[in-house]
Each structure stands twice: as C-alpha cells, then as structure tokens.
Design a protein that fits this description.
Number of strands of chain A: 5
CATH class of chain A: Alpha Beta
Structural class of chain A: alpha/beta
Oligomer: homodimer
Mean pLDDT of chain A: 93
Number of domains of chain A: 1
Strand order of the largest sheet of chain A: 3-2-1-4-5
Radius of gyration of chain A: 16 Å
Shape of chain A: globular
Strand content of chain A: 15-25%
Order of helices and strands of chain A: EHEHHEEHEH
Low-confidence stretches of chain A: none
C-alpha cells in the first residue's frame, strides 16, 4: 500500500468488472478508501441517457455487498455525490484518486481546484478499460441495453 | 398504505428490532420510503457516547441488506444525514414521518420548521419501544455494551 487515503467515484450502475477493476486498485494502493457514489438527482444531470439507471438504494446495496464480500467494508468511507467532485476537492487527507481513461479528465480538473485552494494535488492512478468478450469496453450503458452482462459476456438476443 | 411518501431517520447502529419496528411501519403505511442515515461526522456530534458506533459503510450495508431481504429496496430513497433534519424539512412530497417515543420531539421540531417554510406538517406515526427480554427498551448502546443482542436477548457475561 502506497497511500493512506484514496478516493474513487462513480455512478456504479449495474456494478460491472470495469467498476471492480477501479475499486480493487483503490484498495490495493490505499489503506482507507473513500467511495463516492452519485445521488439519484445527480445521475439524471450527468448522464445523457439516465433513463433506467438504478436508484441509489440498489446501486449502494450492490456496491456494499461487493465490498463486504472482499473484506473491505471496514476500510471504507461512503459519500453520496451531489456534484462531480465530492470531498475530493476539499479533503486534505486524500493522497490519490483512481480513475478509468474515461474519468481521467475529471481527476485533472479536481487537481486544478485543489491547487487553487492550496491543497496538495492527488496522485492519479489510471486503470485501463476492462474489455468485454467482443473487445469493446464494458459499460453500464451496454449492460442496460442488454448487449453484455456485468462480466462482459455477450448476450445474443439477435441470434433468435 | 395510507401515504405516498414517508420518511424515517436514524443512526441505525447495530440494526436491531427497535429499528426494524420503525422501518417496517414506514413501509406498511407508505408507498415510497425515504430512509435518512446519519453520516460518520454527525454520529459524533449527536451522540454523547459515539465511541464504537459503526462506520456508515457498515451501518448502510446492514440496513440495505435488510431492506433487500424484505423486498423493499425498490421503494427506497436513501439519504445521508449531515444534520438531524435531512430532506424532511424541505421535501414537499413527504406526507408522514415514523418515529419512536425517543424521536417524537424531533418530528415536532421538523413540523415547526416545515410550517415556517409554508410546507405541510407531516403526520407523525409513533411506534412504541421494542422491549428486550429484561423488559427495558432495546437500544444500540445496550448492544454495544454487550448487555443484549440486536433481538433483545440478554447476554449474561456476568454469570461466569
């Protein structure tokens, strides 16, 4: 473990292997992990296609069950995000942020805000996309559309 | 079901039969239930004896598992309380609040605030204390002290 406190954030809709890669990396490099999860209001603002995104209660339940089954609950701080930054722009104890290629820009923005406030910038740890069976990244949207399952397995509805 | 939207709030530390009585009543009388759960910062402010109160991640996990096992997750809105009022003093869609004898005063305070803002006061549904085997109310503090378990069963450490 390199860091005392690490942060990750997301909507965590249909918790999938891509999410799990980011989360696992956070607990691998950090002692304590702050997990920010989008509120129900925020998922509607942020996502172009938010129809069908699961309610917070369900997304949280899946996330916490996963953390519990891996023995990580005791190292976890949960925050509900009502904006894209959460405590990442105010908590001086955070050392690093774990991102995907898709969310790296947000981490750079967070660092600009931290620096403007006199806080240390976060070390950015980037985890590559996890690919589905078809070679394209796993995403919640593709799961919601029924193309793949949360492990990236192709669902062949069209072969009927 | 009498109400469209009902609210309950608490720390939900060592989720016990007293909590479950309040929560069950909320889903019995309400179609949608907003469950407010104290943040880690707030439990320290509110409780005289907050040492040993479980972290939010663990309290939330137990709560959501219970709601899932009863089939109630889909009717749930989760909010994290950073003050004792939460959305109960601002959400005009809430019709009622479920309380214990201990938290009734807070509900009356919430109603005073709602009225001062021009919102409808909430109907207050009071659930009696759930008693432990020894006839005294079940409480998280007594569980934490090892006197009883979450179902109110006496733990006789002193009989050794």
């Amino acid at each position: 473990m390199k860091f005392r406190k690490v942060v990750v954030g997301g909507t965590f809709d249909y918790l999938h292997n891509g999410h799990l890669a980011i989360i696992s990396k956070a607990y691998e490099v950090g002692e304590q992990v702050t997990v920010g999860i989008c509120s129900d209001e925020m998922r509607q603002l942020l996502q172009k296609d938010s129809a069908g995104v699961q309610p917070l209660a369900i997304r949280l339940w899946r996330l916490l069950n996963e953390l519990h089954s891996r023995g990580w609950l005791g190292r976890t701080e949960i925050t509900i995000l009502s904006d894209p930054y959460g405590t990442a722009v105010s908590d001086r104890n955070i050392d690093a942020i774990v991102v995907s290629p898709e969310t790296r820009k947000r981490a750079e923005e967070i660092n600009r805000i931290r620096i403007s406030k006199g806080l240390n910038p976060l070390e950015i740890v980037e985890v590559p996309f996890v690919l589905a069976e078809d070679g394209k990244p796993i995403s919640s949207l593709r799961i919601r559309y029924g193309e793949i399952d949360p492990h990236g397995k192709r669902l062949n509805h069209s072969t009927i």
